[in-house]
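Contributing: when you submit paired examples, paste them exactly as shown. First protein:
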Amino acid sequence: MPNIEEKSQVVSEIKEKFQQSSGVVLADYRGLTVAQVTQLRAQLRQAGVEYKVLKNTLVRRAAQEVGVEGLESYLEGPTALAFSNDPVAPAKILLDFAKANKLKSFAIKAGVLEGKVIGPDGVKNLADLPSREVLLAMVLRGMQAPLAGMANVLQGPIRKMGYALEEVRKLKEAQ
């Protein structure tokens, strides 16, 4: 049984993870085999997501100290937490893993997005979002389109001048 010092150290580590992560997903991991857990951890690690099974009481205390309110009701039964700087990655990976392995007992309990608690439906909606890189590419494409259009419009008079000069050249040759 860990003593109070060890527990407070674990609580401070959890607090630090909450503060450093922009996205945290809580999952009920019941029904996973050891091989599936190993596979899931590998997928999460590849995406830069830290996956930990933690005691609910310690998570509850850390969440209260950080100021995350409303998480207590989700901290029942076995709970695994996935911490990430990308708020979409843990939700997407966990849900895709559950679908791919046809897991019925594995369930998303809740999520914490930028310090605010979201329910399982919110986590599912979050997983449907494109990744950060895709969203940035979409924004850049949106910014680039008007510039490309403007360049095309500005080239129009120059192009027309070229056509006119070509016609003049043809007329001069015909004479």
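Second protein:
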Amino acid sequence: MKYGIAIFPSKSVQDEANSYRMRYDPRYDLIPPHITLKQPFEADDSTIDELVTELKQIANEFNPFMIHVNKVSTFAPVTNTIYLKVEPIQELIDLYDKMHQGKFPQNQEYSFVPHITIAQELPDDEYSDVFGSLKMRGTQYEDEIDRFQLLYQLDNGSWSVHETFVFGKEYV
């Protein structure tokens, strides 16, 4: 089965991201707006059991922290993806790094750029118009992050939460 690890921001941030995603993201209905901590990876049940134990330990090590979204950016020219840029604060970087050590699959394709995708797979002309328009808007959000989720992919391509891990909670 295919798994991934992500942070879901608050409803207000998700609502803002979804206001764009409904129009500009063909994967809008597959997963809510999120910050990816671990790209999708294949794992069997016993591997997931081991990783859940690791994820509980990781959650124990972190306290809630604030993220700051302060602009719209893009991965162009690599892809026509537009996103809300999340400032790469140390807690977020440390959390990401922990998902790429030990028993976790080593499937990191790109450098970590914390973000929330709002548009992707756009034709070049539409990409230019949309990015130009969104870039001029003021984007400022602060959001408290106090958990992350282990997700699994369903047969129809959508993602569902397998387990949620709350920071600072004493998992045994």
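If you have annotations for the second protein, write them as plain sentences, like these:
The first helix runs from residue 11 to 24.
The domain at 2-166 is CATH 3.90.1140.10 (Cyclic Phosphodiesterase; Chain: A,).
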